[in-house]
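Good morning N.,

You mentioned wanting to compare the apo and holo forms, so I went ahead and generated the holo version with zinc ion. This is what I fed in:
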Amino acid sequence: MVTERADGPRESRDNEKVGMHDFRDDGPYLGWLDDHPDGYVVNTTRPPAIGNVMLHRATCHHVRRAPHPDSSFTREKAKYASTDRGELERWARHTVGGPPQPCGICKP
Ligand SMILES: [Zn+2]
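and this is what came out, ligand included:
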């Protein structure tokens, strides 16, 4: 006999912990955006450099549309995503020595 667990909130799963993701492939990146519409994305150069660290909402078209039809989201630019905006800001301060620049379009 199979014991079924009641459907609990999905957020309680261990693998759904809040954490920053460094995306190297477009597929998982775009999937994360769809799963976390309330999340935040830092778009930056590889390696990250002060003045090139932009904070966006996951719903911003700047981080959902490739600059060129045949280009990759994640190859030319680094994408760091988290549901915790503070975590991305701490990361930017630690990595490039300053806060990320908020996007003027999505105003995160
Ligand atoms: Zn934006």
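Residues 42 and 55 are 5 Å apart (CA to CA).

Happy to go through it together on a call whenever suits you.

Best,
F.
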